[in-house]
Write a sequence for this structure.
């Protein structure tokens, strides 16, 4: 697939690849100091450039898309659908991929601008998926394999890509792992896609249930719980609604309710005032009646004594005759009695009148209170209406909640059945394509046995959640063994696809895959990759540091230096780009 890598700057060190093993070696020069390092010479940058030309989308300011590389363009010489083409992509204009070569039989034809042919980025990725993996150009279903995902198992991008064989970045979505790996091994990836659809539908049902429980999504009452609890709550609300409906039906509104209430209050106040006034009148009447009864004319001898005392005590005064005094005193008593009798009569009439007034006001108040007891104010009626409508709304909401919860439960039951049927279908598909599994398992076992004298295990299972993959190699606790699991798996994929068309016909490993690996296994892995790539006709490209080369572990017939296609050094201008960035 990839024949060479180049750039538009003279300082760049182009590299050509041949069929079989191709080595990019980072070397230390004789003049380099102990502080010089082979890191940063461009091994990983070369892989970034390849991904960039194959449609990756690095964010601005990261990777190659930095200000120091403005004006740079990178290109690949590719073999696609049996034809050699040259593609270039600019750092300044990454949305277009320019192309030279015959594309007349391609499913997507390039655009033309000022005599140059180019593809938009999304068009380019779709075309690459079609030309290298046979992916359909227009796939409308969700959770499908795509070129960028598939190629990342053949050209793992960055250090984070070497954590497990089935992921090319940490915490990769489960559906991607299942769909991409089933496609690459040769299983029915559509089954893996359908498993994910069922998972998504289950999540939607769970989220709907949680949403309704939280009182959102149209449910205005905070009713939580199971379907049975909701049914019980509905009965309670129905009873409450019936009571409020009866209250509303029996309620009679009096248009002057508030005025009647004010009049009743005013009559009550008046009655209290009149009653208090009559209490005073009755006390005064009692006093007057008592005074009349106790009013007597004085004894004549007593009067005479008083007169004599007055004559003695008031000498010089003209003393009237005793008869005149008696007549005068008698007149005073008569006048007082007449006054008391007149007041008594007046008080009796006043008391009687006020009692009648109290009676009338009491009757008037009773009439108004009777109306108030049997009628209500418009405000009260309006409030009753509001309570009734609120209760009815709550009943409608809980009925809706019950219906939705039933749908959720029915949907989950349907999903369980659908998942079980899909699991049976996936198992049948697996059995029908078991020769693919056998081929993949045999290749992985063979690869691992070449490194550790014992076959590893590639396990593929179909469970309720879809496809599960696992690899095991004896003594797999060390980091080096873990990296060799990835190596054996990647090589197995390259071996499988080397015998298919279309095919990427390539496998690229960064030196990271050999970190922590014993020198013996590194030598065996490189010899195995060289042997298999040569035998099956694909390109194996590996970046390596010169101080990691296990020279003493290679077999006598393996000429390591003959595979070096590019040597990078740490002296000035010796790195891939010829500049520091």
């Amino acid at each position: 697939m990839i024949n060479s890598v180049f750039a538009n700057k003279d300082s760049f060190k182009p590299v050509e690849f041949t069929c079989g093993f191709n080595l990019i070696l980072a070397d230390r020069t004789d003049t380099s100091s102990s502080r010089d390092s082979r890191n940063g010479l461009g091994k990983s940058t070369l892989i970034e450039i390849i991904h960039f030309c194959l449609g990756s989308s690095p964010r601005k300011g990261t990777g190659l898309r930095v200000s120091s590389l403005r004006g740079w363009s990178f290109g690949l010489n590719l073999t696609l659908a049996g034809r050699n083409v040259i593609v270039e992509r600019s750092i300044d204009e990454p949305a277009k991929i320019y192309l030279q070569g015959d594309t007349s039989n391609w499913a997507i034809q390039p655009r033309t601008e000022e005599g140059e042919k180019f593809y938009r980025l999304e068009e380019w990725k779709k075309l690459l998926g079609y030309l290298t993996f046979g992916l359909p150009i227009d796939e409308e279903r969700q959770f499908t394999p795509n070129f960028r995902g598939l190629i990342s198992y053949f050209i793992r991008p960055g250090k984070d890509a070497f954590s497990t064989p089935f992921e090319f970045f940490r915490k990769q979505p489960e559906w991607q792992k299942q769909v991409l790996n089933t496609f690459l091994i040769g299983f029915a990836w559509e089954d893996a896609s359908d498993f994910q659809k069922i998972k998504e539908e289950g999540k939607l049902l769970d989220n709907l249930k949680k949403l309704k429980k939280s009182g959102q999504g149209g449910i205005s009452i905070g009713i939580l719980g199971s379907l049975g609890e909701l049914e019980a709550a509905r009965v309670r609300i129905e009873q409450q609604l019936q009571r409020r409906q009866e209250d509303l039906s029996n309620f009679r509104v009096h248009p002057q309710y508030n005025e009647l209430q004010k009049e009743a209050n005013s009559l009550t106040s008046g009655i209290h005032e009149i009653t208090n006034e009559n209490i005073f009148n009755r006390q005064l009447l009692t006093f007057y009646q008592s005074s009349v009864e106790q009013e007597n004319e004085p004894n004549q001898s007593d009067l005479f004594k008083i007169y004599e005392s007055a004559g003695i005590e008031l000498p010089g005064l003209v003393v009237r005759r005793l008869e005149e005094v008696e007549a005068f005193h008698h007149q005073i008593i008569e006048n007082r009695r007449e006054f008391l009798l007149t007041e008594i009569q007046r008080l009796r009439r006043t008391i009687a009148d006020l009692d009648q007034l109290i009676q009338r006001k009491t009757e008037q108040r009773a009439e108004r209170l009777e109306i108030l007891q049997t009628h209500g104010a418009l405000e009260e009626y309006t409030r009753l209406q509001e309570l009734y409508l609120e209760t009815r709304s709550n009943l409608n909401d809980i009925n809706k909640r019950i219906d939705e919860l039933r749908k959720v439960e029915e949907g989950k039951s349907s999903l369980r059945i659908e998942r079980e049927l899909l699991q049976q279908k996936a198992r049948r598909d697996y059995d029908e394509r078991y020769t693919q599994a056998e081929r993949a398992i045999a290749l992985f076992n063979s690869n691992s046995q070449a490194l550790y004298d014992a076959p590893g295990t590639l396990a593929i299972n179909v469970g309720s959640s879809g496809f599960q993959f696992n690899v095991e190699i004896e003594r797999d606790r060390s980091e080096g063994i873990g990296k060799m699991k990835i190596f054996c798996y990647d090589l197995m994929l390259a071996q499988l696809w080397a015998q298919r068309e279309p095919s990427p016909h390539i496998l690229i490993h960064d030196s990271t895959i050999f970190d922590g690996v014993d020198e013996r296994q590194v030598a065996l892995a490189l010899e195995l990759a060289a042997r298999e790539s040569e035998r099956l006709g694909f390109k194996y490209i590996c970046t390596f540091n010169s101080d990691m080369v296990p020279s003493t572990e290679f077999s006598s017939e393996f000429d390591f230096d003959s595979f070096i296609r590019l040597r990078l050094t740490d002296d000035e201008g010796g790195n891939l780009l010829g500049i520091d960035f």
Summary: The chain has two domains: 2-187+433-569, 257-375.
